[in-house]
Amino acid sequence: LVLESVNGASARDVVIQVQNCEKFHKGPETRAAFILGDNVTNVTLRNFTILNTHVKSIIEGSTLEDSAEALSYCGTRGALFAEKMNFEGHQNVVYTQGYSSFKECSFKGDVDVIWGNPVLAYFEECFVHVAEDNRGDFNGYGVKSLAVANKPGFVFNNCRFTCDRRKKSECYVMRTEGKGSAYSKENWDSIALINCMVSEY
Predict the structure, then answer these.
(1) Separation between Cα atoms, residue 148 and residue 60, nearest integer Å
(2) What integer pLDDT is reported at residue 167 of this predicted model?
(3) Closest to 52 (Cα-Cα) out of 84, 83, 81, 25
(4) Which of 59, 113, 130, 172 lies 20 to 30 Å from 199 when distance is taken between CA atoms?
């Protein structure tokens, strides 16, 4: 399956957008703006934007209900290939598992912009921007890895990471919840940065 914009259009000219979140539907398999389920095999997305318009609202306590992916790739039987795509949202913008490849794509969100439990999620010449949290001055995170054990996990090659200016909070390329162990089948902090650039903004 190949989904792409018309010839001559930019990625921002063609937009799929909707509001969805954990409060409405539970789990990354149902709460995203665009979902590719477990039965998909080989899918290509090329040159358009996927936007989850949900705006975070929970100030105190758990922010789980504000999890709202733009894209959830839940396939384990094939592979996802995305080229010149634009993904935007707030919390948990792109979820991926199995095998996926992103080339010349743009990602924008404020917490766990890219996350999942992949065997391999490969990013080449991509741009990841950690935006200011709409709720205020909260820490920002680019990547959260819950990768499959003893697999490459997340690999970024020639990518750029930036963030909005902040007053007191911090901005991080990645974070861990510390769930993985030598006996875990997933939840591994498997991230590689190759020839990548990290800048403040």
Answers:
(1) 31
(2) 84
(3) 25
(4) 59
What is the model's pLDDT at position 165? 85
- Residue 162's contacts (CB-CB under 8 Å, 6 or more residues apart) are 127, 128, 129, 130, 198, 199, 200, 201
What are phi and psi for residue 65, nearest 5 degrees?
-65, -20
Strand partners for 67: 91
Q: Is the pTM here over 0.85, yes or no?
A: yes
Nearest partner of 121 among 172, 69, 75, judged by Cα: 75
Nearest to 162 by CA among 111, 108, 101: 108
Token pair listed for 109: 């969100």
**What local confidence, expressed as pLDDT, does residue 11 receive?**
95
pLDDT less than 70: residues of the chain: 59-62, 177-178, 180, 201
Tokens 């990548």 found at: 196
Q: Is 65 helix (H, G, I), strand (E, B) or coil?
A: helix
Question: What is the spatial distance between Cα 80 and Cα 36, in angstroms, rounded to a whole number?
Answer: 9
Question: Quick one: 50 exposed, middle or buried, by C-beta within 10 A (0-12, 13-18, 19+)?
Answer: buried
Please list, residue by residue across 98-111, b when 16 or more beta carbons sit within 10 angstroms of its beta carbon and e when fewer do.
bbbbbbebbbbbbb
